[in-house]
Specification:
The complex is a heterodimer of chains A (about 300) and B (about 270). Helices cover about 65% and strands about 0% of the residues of chain A. Chain A has about 300 residues and is mainly α. Chain A has two domains: about 1-30, no CATH class; about 30-290, no CATH class. In chain A, helix 8 packs antiparallel against helix 11. By secondary structure, chain B is α/β, with parallel strands linked by helices. Chain B has a six-stranded mixed sheet with strand order 5-6-7-3-8-9, with helices on both faces. In chain B, strands 2-1-4 form a three-stranded antiparallel sheet, covered by helices on one side. Chain B is globular. At the A-B interface, helix 1, strand 1, helix 3, helix 6 and helix 9 of A face strand 1, helix 1, strand 2, helix 2 and strand 4 of B. Strand 1 (about 25) of chain A pairs antiparallel with strand 4 of chain B, so a sheet runs across the interface.
């Protein structure tokens, strides 16, 4: 066996002493959190380019190309409208189609980001094993790709909302901070699932079920007033559900008469901001702590 | 039996050097253990996945491979070191460990600066054009966007992918494997490195490209500190490296001047 105390014939030092004497650093050592954040910021151009590249690549084989960015959310909305609006004949909510699509598109932003994020480490092992960059670039880029998708969906959504007769109000501007808070929340969650997905490939199989359960608990497809029939603790739980909160913020901003579960608007914003901070910082720290493990396979 | 020749000082050294030799890579009793998935066995249903997650057992189709079993050596500035050995001897793995891409399970690897790995495995996005991949690869190496714009034509020119029509604007999935490998090498070689690790990259491409890349490696060697070359092509090791390490099943079998090591290696492989 190789001998740890092997001594260099010229200098008479052990390997570790030799390395220390010449200021060599442990390969692949995890940087401090501050240093890691600084490096991540230095790689912002890579993140933007990678997110954009993924977006372009995802449609490169389709004949219609980038048009799918708008067609996908539109088709989605049409299918759900057919079932929940026409077949099940929703009467309770005024302007149901706008109510439904708002919830659907907002939820879809998180859903697709999380699904992409679960695989953002495991599907990029080639890149990770070949090049050195802060690994957080990958989940952040996955979130950014979905954010760009969201912007296309928002164009569709504004169209639907206007066509269904909602007036343009100054409150629409609240969409901007609401979406930004949601994006930060998503980035945090994506970093968590990215680390978990890098270890356990089973998560990829489970994630669709988790996301679907989450969707039913977020009042996307039906009126949130249904939740009021639940026992008190469950209703409170759902009230603080981050996805419900972000969806309610969007519905409040865009729609005039949408039923909301949360009556206090201030509380809604506070909860939305708190979730963004907790998930954003928590997710980043959690991901950073695993930095050395990515790529081990 | 392990022969352990110490790196002798009489190895042909081409660079002028004053005083003490400066180490750039110090590997101290490094062990690397891989976890590999044996592919789809049974139990890939969501129910089975849930049960495994709840019970916290690992998937049944994971196997551990002890690829590097205690390797110790020191590389100095100005050296070009060849790594040889039969398939699966741990050459590429030790290179990844030096690059800090695969953490060691025991022991330690110390390096000066950030070593860069030029591998044929550097995965790029196959659905994107060669040009975009160049830009992406350069950004991933930490280059500034202005430099990327300036370097892109040079890199494409060097790779020679445009010799037969405008391939740079076509998606990489339309490339032949040789073209793709050439482009990857050209991207990675565009940057100056303290420690450069080359994984069989020189074996790809046609004769003209091989000449250009060997020239490039020599230039990089002069500006950089140390070059490692993993190759099955003994001739390219002989041409570029003066020191060679021979690995066999995760252990160093021999470490010394290229001629000696290659002679012993050839005798060993002919005997098999």
């Amino acid at each position: 066996m190789a001998d740890t105390a092997l001594v260099d014939p010229v200098t008479g030092l052990t390997q570790a002493q030799l390395a220390a004497r010449h200021g060599l650093r442990v390969a692949g050592e995890r940087p401090s959190l501050a240093e890691y954040s600084r490096r991540l910021w230095a790689y912002r151009h890579f993140i933007a380019a990678y997110a954009n590249a993924k977006l372009v690549a995802s449609y490169s084989n389709a004949k219609l190309g980038q048009i799918w960015q708008v067609l996908t959310p539109l088709t989605n909305a049409a299918v759900y409208y057919l079932i929940f609006g026409v077949v099940l004949a929703q009467k309770e909510i005024p302007n149901f189609i706008a109510y439904l699509t708002t919830g659907l598109f907002i939820f879809n932003f998180t859903q697709s980001a999380v699904l992409a994020g679960t695989q953002s480490i495991s599907s990029n092992l080639g890149l990770i094993r070949a090049l050195h960059f802060p690994r957080a670039c990958l989940p952040v880029a996955a979130t950014l790709t979905q954010f760009q998708q969201l912007l296309a969906s928002m164009v569709v959504l504004v169209g639907i909302v206007l066509v269904t007769g909602e007036p343009i109000t100054p409150e629409w501007l609240l969409m901007v901070p609401a979406l930004l808070l949601q994006a930060v929340f998503n980035a945090g969650v994506v970093m968590v699932v990215a680390r978990m997905g890098s270890k356990s490939s089973d998560l990829k199989q489970l994630m669709p079920f988790i996301m679907r359960t989450w969707m039913y608990g977020s009042g996307v497809l039906y009126s949130v007033s249904l939740f009021k029939r639940l026992p008190e603790w469950a209703a409170t739980l759902i009230q603080y559900n981050p996805m419900l909160v972000y969806i309610e913020l969007a519905r409040h901003a865009l729609l005039e008469q949408a039923p909301l579960l949360n009556e206090s608007l201030t509380q809604l914003w506070l909860v939305a901001a708190a979730w963004a901070v907790v998930a954003g910082i928590g997710g980043f720290v959690y991901f950073w702590r695993g930095e050395q493990e990515y790529g081990r396979g | 039996m392990v022969e352990h020749l110490e790196a002798s000082n009489d190895a042909t050294i081409t660079l002028p050097r004053v005083g003490e030799r400066i180490p750039t890579v110090v590997v101290d009793d490094a062990h690397v253990i891989y976890r590999v998935h044996k592919g789809a066995g049974g139990g890939t249903t969501p129910v089975a996945a849930l049960r495994r997650l709840v019970k916290r057992t690992s998937a049944p189709n994971i196997q551990e491979v002890h690829a590097v079993k205690g390797v110790t050596f020191t590389a100095y500035r100005g050296e070009a070191i060849g790594l040889i050995g039969s398939n699966g001897s741990g050459k590429s793995t030790i290179l990844r460990a030096i690059a800090g891409l695969l953490p060691v399970n025991r022991g330690a690897v110390y390096t000066q600066g950030q070593p860069s790995l030029l591998g044929v495995n550097a995965a790029l996005l196959n659905d994107l054009s060669g040009e975009r991949n160049v830009a992406l690869g350069c950004l991933a190496m930490g280059m500034h966007p202005d430099d990327v714009v300036r370097m892109t034509p040079e890199i494409i020119e060097f790779s020679g992918i445009n010799e037969r029509g405008d391939f740079a604007s076509l998606p990489m999935r339309t490339y032949s494997s040789g073209m793709a490998a050439r482009l990857r090498f050209s991207i990675a070689a565009a940057k100056k490195h303290d420690v450069l690790l080359i994984d069989e990259a020189l074996a790809t491409g046609d004769k003209g490209f091989r000449k250009r890349s060997e020239q490039r490696v020599r230039e990089l060697r002069e500006s950089a500190g140390t070059v490692f070359l993993v190759s099955h092509q003994l001739s390219s090791v002989r041409d570029t490296c003066e020191r060679t390490i021979w690995l066999e099943s995760g252990l160093i079998r021999m470490d010394g001047p290229t001629d000696e090591v290659i002679r012993a290696y050839e005798a060993f492989s002919n005997k098999k």
